Amino acid sequence: MELDRVVEPKPVIINQHRAREEMIALAKEGVKTFEELPIRLEFNPLFRQDGSINLAFTQEEFDEIRKNVRLQNSLGVKTELLEPHEIKELIPPINEEKILGGAFIPTDGIPNPYAVLFGHVNALTKMGVEIRPFTKAKKIKVKNEEAKGVTTKNSDINAPIIINAAGGFAGEIAKTAGVKIPIQPMKREVLVTEMLKPSIDPAIISAHRNFYLAQMLRGEFACGSTVTKDGDPTLDSSLEFLRWISRTIVELIPQFAYVKIKRQWAGVIGVTPDKRPIIGGVNGVEGLYLACGLGG
């Protein structure tokens, strides 16, 4: 699906802080994939494996994280349960009085979204793949219960295999093929600070309070959250998010009260009701495959 304006890629934390076996397995494979990308693509995705910490602010959150750590360890993820003073050693500026503990996964990391994009474009081009940027997919063509191609704003593209990986718009484009999938589009807002000296290595996550904070390669910090309001999400940045995320981060790391914000933006992700992705073929439409719902 084509958007009315270009959306800046959001920072992605490749993390394994999951609570279900299938999601942990998928996250493990994601880490492995990024570790192997330099060989697969012959291009460096700038994947920094500084780890990530999932914080607990209440006893209930800490108990759930402890349970998840046991499951992650049983599936081969080397998650470590940490007390506040141990988190303080990894993140010196943190206000340890605000947290009860957390979980640290040293193999998690952050790739550069532009490097990942350009690496794939470069590899696909070498394979002879034609990429058509800014081409709106209007409709999936189906005949006799078989996928036949895609109608775009410019022309029809005939193809026996169609992969719907349209993120938050996957449900909308699936309807054109007569397929209904439970994808809810949600807004994810992000802000980026000025460039600072390296000070926090692991990415900070709060699965319960729905925010993240991570220092990027050039020194700026990115922090974001998913907005769960009802209705169609827009790409407009909100003052509400700016106030909430600023207050949340400053309470956690007081020094951020003096940090300047460089820019702010929003994007749309696709989430399913049970936060599980939808991956695989579609019954009733031969040749149509789904790879969506990955925003949860």
UniProtKB/TrEMBL annotation:
GO terms for cellular component: cytoplasm. InterPro entries: FAD-dep_OxRdtase, FAD/NAD-bd_sf. It comes from the Archaea. Keywords: Oxidoreductase. Residues 17-296 form the FAD dependent oxidoreductase domain. Pfam families: DAO. GO terms for molecular function: oxidoreductase activity. PANTHER family: FAD-DEPENDENT OXIDOREDUCTASE DOMAIN-CONTAINING PROTEIN 1, SARCOSINE DEHYDROGENASE-RELATED. This is FAD dependent oxidoreductase domain-containing protein.
